[in-house]
Amino acid sequence: MSVDCRFDRHSLDPTQADMSTWPTVNTSLLTDKERLRFQKLEKVLEEYLAGRKVKDICKRHKISRVEIIRVLKRCLATHPDGQVWGLRALISHIHQNGYQRTSPVRATGKCKGGRAGALTQLFEMYPTLLELVSTLFLKKRKDGIVHESKIPLKSIHKRLLKACRDLGLTARDYPLSQRYQGRTALWNFLRELENTRTNETAAARYSDDAARKLREDDRLPSEPHILRPYQAVEFDGHRMDLHATVHIPSPLGDFVTIVIDRFWILAIIEVLTRTILGHYVTLNREYTQDDVLCCVRNAITPWVPKTLTIPGLRYPETGGFPTAVFPDLKWALWDEFKFDNAKAHLSAKTIKRLCSTVGCAPKAGPVGDPNERALIERFFLTLEENGFHRLPSTTGSNPKDPRRKNSEKAALRFDISVGHIEELASVIVAQYNCDPHLGIGGHSPLEYLGFLIQDQETKDNIRRLPEAKRNNLRLLNHETTRVVRGNIRDGKRPYLEFAGVRYNSSLLAHSPQLIGKRLSISVDPEDPRSLTAFLPNGAELGILTGHGAWGRTPHTLTMRRAMGELRRKKLIHYTQTDDPIHIYLDFLATQAQTSKSAARQYAAIERAVHKTQSAVPERRNARDPIAQEPESDDTEQQSPPLKKGFTF
Question: Does residue 175 sit in the same domain as residue 236?
Answer without folding.
Answer: no
